[in-house]
Every structure is written in C-alpha cells, then in structure tokens.
Design goal:
Blueprint (H helix, E strand, L loop, with lengths): L1 E7 L8 E5 L5 E5 L8 E7 L3 H7 L4 E5 L3
Antiparallel strand pairs: 1-4, 1-5, 2-3
Amino acid sequence: MRYEINLRCETCDSLGKIEHQRSETLFSDSVCSDCRGEKFKVYYDNYDTEEDCRADYPDAMVRELYNV
C-alpha cells in the first residue's frame, strides 16, 4: 500500500517562514526553502501495513492513499 507521510519541518519549526536579522533593529521573513512555506515535508512510500509505516515515522501524520 502507498502512504503519504507528513513530517513537521524542523528547519522553520513548522512556521513556513524563517526570520532573518538584517540589522540590530531590522528583521525580515523569507519562505522556508525546505518546506516551501507548507510547514510540512511530504514523502510517499510503500509499506505492507500502516503500523510498519508508523514504525519508521513515529512523529508523522500518515495516511493511506487509495487508487494510486
């Protein structure tokens, strides 16, 4: 079975953006390059069971994809 695996982005702490300090008082935000602003990284993989998938990705949101 094919699964969609959603992991929280560790680079931006799932905020979708990264704050940059430009000077002592000036800050700006940019879109996170790892998750592209989506807050999660998405992977797809095949597993025999959902339990096998969750064993490899215990902190992820996992869902089975049908008709793939």
